Amino acid sequence: MQAYFLAGNPVILIITGAVVAVLLQTAFVVCGFPTILTLERGFAVNHVVELSELKDRDSVRHPRILQQQQQQQASVGSVVDFPVQGTYDPFRVGLYFTRVQLGSPPKEYFVQIDTGSDVLWVSCASCEGCPRSSGLQIPIQFYDPSSSSTASLIRCSDQRCSLGSQSLDSSCSKSNDQCIYTFQYGDGSGTSGFYVSDQIQLDTIVGDSTSSNASASVVFGCSMSQTGDLTKSDRAVDGIFGFGQQGLSVIAQLSSQGVAPDAFSHCLVGNGAGGGILVLGQIIEPSMVYTPLIPSQPHYNLNLLSISVNGQTLSIDPSMFGTSGSRGGTIIDSGTTLAYLAEEAYDPFVDAITLSVSQSVRPLVSKDSQCYLVASSTPDIFPTVSLNFAGGASMILRPQDYLLQQNSVGGAALWCIGFQKIRGQGITILGDLVLKDKIVVYDLGGQRIGWANYDCTSSVNVSTSSSGGRSEYVAGQFNDSTSLQDTRYSLILTVFVAFVLQLSVIVAFS
Asked: Is 309 exposed, middle or buried (0-12, 13-18, 19+ CB in 10 A)?
């Protein structure tokens, strides 16, 4: 092949333009336009909550977890980015919610992020029992289908209605030909309404910071009635954003349209700085380990095999963590604040922790929780805990991943076991106490969950599969931490410069 380049700089300028175009396309265009939804904490920073209240809050959602059914639908798409805001702190109630814009023209709604449920629903106009104000200091908005030019009701004959009816929470109202739903929770609270289809407006990332608008059509619930705790204004939001596996979950709908992949990931900051990352896509990290999801389950159930404290495996029958019959198994749930162990595993776990620090602390029971008076304000004297799952994947817990610091007593720090005992349900739930400061990947297409300890204030690389192969996108704290981005751009620039220099030498000697 003949080259018609002149010697010298023109060659470099021509190659520069071509390489930059290819690199920019690889870094941004192939990956699509990631979407940002801002997550915020549920309570003001100075709102301190007792441990007992946190336990009560978690106990409300656990009957909901036990009552739901399963289904999933997924596909391949572009990476969607939801940078997280807010601070994780269980004593200030780590309730995360996000803003979504629905309808045409779009209106903004605050909805709780919930991996323990599937459907996105918001309070509808003329809703009975829906709170009109919120202790979260956010405006309460009501969705009105008649005010949106793109809204349409889901009729009984619509195939999407059948997706909801398979969960036993949805049905068809033949009197008005509407697809309706009722979600009833074990504490007596619940919500009911009808399904609508409308546009969800998404803030997208182009490059590393530029925002633009995108939209997709999704089916969600319009709540006409709420009861129980859902009517209380202290933690009131406009609705719930379900990230479960069923066909009517937003992630399933977006992936089936090719808008997002059949995977999502989060990385929650555990220190006072707060923040984190939530993306539709798989975060890539070399130290990631994976364990299979247990199939045909309504939630993210894993096969927990054993627990080790200081490297010593505890004498617990593995069947105590199983998912069968009356046993609920082990569930990953970012909507739960604390962590919960099946009662057969709780006592051996606490006893092992106590034994390992018995010479350095003063054990005591405070409000039904095992606590320890420690001279130091840091929990470094406590042992490392390992949760060992199928497939050889272990989740390593630092002391701050299973302990909570409470008020000091007589100048000594009071540290309490953050794991709580669940009686009679045979269920273990790993909530934000355990999941913080970790990348957690929910690979629905591969039916597995992975994790890796990580500094969640840093950016991450996220990938998705396409017909042209895997593409990657850099997501994270764009305004605060771009070290990974800067490194990646520097690498691109270095490769480019080396490539140009090599071509220059070839042209010079040809």
From this structure: buried
- CB burial string 15-45: b at 16+ within 10 A, e below: beeebeeeeeeebbebbbbbbbbebbbbbee
With beta carbons less than 8 A apart as the criterion, state whether 285 and 291 touch.
no
With the CA atoms of 330, 336, 338 and 341 taken in that order, what torsion angle do they form, in degrees rounded to the nearest 10?
-20
Q: How many CB atoms lie within 10 A of CB 275?
A: 22
Distance (Å, rounded) from C-alpha 358 to C-alpha 72? 47
| pTM of the predicted protein model | 0.76
CA dist., res. 9 & res. 504, Å (int):
8
Question: DSSP states of 13-47 as a string?
Answer: HHHHHHHHHHHHIIIIITT---EE--EEESS-TT-
| Closest by CA position to 214, among listed 200, 228, 225 | 200
d(CA 443, CA 448): 5
Burial label, 271 (beta-carbon count in 10 A; 0-12, 13-18, 19+): middle
Instruction: Pick the closest to residue 447 from 251, 282, 300 (CA basis).
Output: 300
Tell me 77's DSSP state: -
In the numeric block, the tokens 């010298």 are attached to: 8
Backbone angles phi, psi at 290, to 5 degrees: -125, 150
pLDDT at site 209: 43
What average pLDDT does range 123-148 have in this prediction? Answer: 92
pLDDT, position 461: 86
Query: Cα–Cα distance between 379 and 366 in angstroms, integer?
Result: 18
Find out whether 471 and 312 touch, Cβ atoms under 8 Å.
no
Structure-derived torsion over alpha carbons of residues 110, 258, 276, 70, reported in degrees to the nearest 10 = 70
pLDDT of residue 168: 65
453: pLDDT confidence band, cut at 50, 70 and 90? very high
Q: CA 500 to CA 491: how far, in whole Å? A: 14
Q: Of the candidates 120, 132, 127, which has an alpha carbon nearest to the alpha carbon of residue 247? A: 120
d(CA 8, CA 283): 43
As a whole number of angstroms, the distance between CA 445 and CA 292 comes to: 11
Residue 272: both structure tokens together: 């006072």
For 177-227, how does the pLDDT look when each residue is reduced to its tens digit (9 = 90+)?
999 999 876 456 889 999 999 999 876 654 454 345 678 999 999 999 999
Provide the β-strand partners of residue 36.
203
**pLDDT digit string (tens) for 497-508?**
334 334 443 444
The Cα 302–Cα 316 span in angstroms is: 17
DSSP per residue, 376-394: SSS-TTSPPEEEEEGGG-E
The residues annotated with a catalytic role in the active site are 114, 333
Crossing angle (nearest 10°) for helices 9-24 and 483-509: 150
Give the distance between the most distant pair of CA atoms in the chain: 85
